[in-house]
UniProtKB/TrEMBL annotation:
Keywords, in A-Z order: Pyridoxal phosphate
Highest taxon listed in the record's lineage: Bacteria
Native organism: Flavobacterium ardleyense
PANTHER family (alphabetical): 1-AMINOCYCLOPROPANE-1-CARBOXYLATE DEAMINASE-RELATED (PTHR43780)
Protein name per UniProt: 1-aminocyclopropane-1-carboxylate deaminase/D-cysteine desulfhydrase
Length: 302
């Protein structure tokens, strides 16, 4: 499956061209990179005879929504282990979890400390006692099979045409697949949506190439955090291009790309491909949070 590369029509200096790969339009409900990451996991789960998927995520997780959607479409029961016991009583306020529920996902809410230890063998054993046999997909969906799926994002033409490929990072599975399939002369840049510089080590577990670097300057205070300037950027970018970006990943990446272009980070005549990894389902949830704080909302309706 291939998605469209759309040229971004904003004025850029030094003959630089910027394109965006619309992976957000790859699948109506299993959005963007989550489709790529789940693909071979679902094939394997089917082959190995599982009929239940279990995974982990936060309250507004794109991954949780995607696993629920995939379960419904491909005939798996789904269980979402969700961070934060308090969320259970506030389900109706949460568009992401509502979507997952409508797609048949069952939830298991756990406190934040237990969530931190969710990969411990003892905890997994407890989950098996509760839910029986299941195919386990890690938080964010990153494993070898996910990276393999993300190796299919770039086309042969993309590998030749673009000097730089940019992608947002959460657990760094997507960028790892992109690096593995990138062209010799391309530079792949990962924009971290989290505070701290630890994803390079994760990437090195999955790749052997060296044509990549990470940028940790555009996390806006950390995972899921936004600023007024970021929201303003998203709304302006939409007004100019009609391309919706999500506030957690692709919006921060695009803010970073435009800022770096304006600061002459990219050589003249660079041809940059930004990956739109999707995540638009998270906008409604972010707006409920912004609304409570009396902040400007993400508005893509004109
Ligand atoms: C999950 C997600 C990412 C991060 O992907 P990783 O493989 O975890 O780095 C990026 N963009 C969007 C929209 C996502 O939903």
């Amino acid at each position: 499956m291939e998605s469209v590369n759309q040229k971004i029509d904003i004025i850029l200096p030094n003959g630089i061209e910027l394109f965006i790969k619309r992976e957000d339009q790859l699948h109506p409900i299993i959005s963007g990179n989550k489709y790529r990451k789940l693909k071979y996991n679902l094939v394997t789960a089917k082959e190995e005879g599982y009929n239940k998927l279990l995974t982990f995520g936060g309250a507004y997780s794109n991954h949780i929504a995607a696993v629920a959607g995939a379960g419904k479409e491909y005939g798996f029961e789904t269980i979402g282990v969700i961070r934060g016991e308090e969320i259970e009583d506030k389900l109706q306020d949460n568009p992401s979890l509502n979507f997952a529920k409508q797609n048949g996902m069952n939830f298991h809410f756990i406190d934040r400390t237990s969530y931190q230890n969710k990969t411990d063998e003892a905890f997994i054993t407890t989950l098996h006692k509760l839910f029986g046999d299941f195919y386990l997909i890690p938080e964010g969906g990153t494993n070898d099979l996910a990276v393999k799926g993300c190796e299919e994002i770039l086309t042969e033409t993309d590998k030749l045409k673009f000097s730089h490929v940019c992608c947002a990072m959460g657990t760094a599975g997507t960028i790892s697949g992109i690096i593995n399939s990138s062209g010799e002369k391309q530079q792949v840049i990962g924009f971290s949506s989290l505070k701290g510089d630890f994803l390079s080590d994760v990437i090195r577990n999955f790749v052997t190439k060296e044509n990549w670097n990470t940028n940790c300057d555009y996390h806006f205070g950390g995972y899921g955090k936004v600023s007024d300037a970021l929201i303003q950027f998203l709304n302006d970018f939409y007004r100019k291009t009609k391309i919706p970006l999500d506030p957690v990943y692709t919006g921060k990446m695009m803010f970073g790309i435009v800022d770096l272009i304006e600061n002459d980070y990219f050589p003249p005549h660079s041809k940059i491909l930004a990956i739109h990894t999707g995540g638009l389902q998270g906008i409604a949830g972010m707006n409920t949070i912004l609304e409570k704080k009396n902040k400007k909302l993400i508005a893509y309706n004109d």
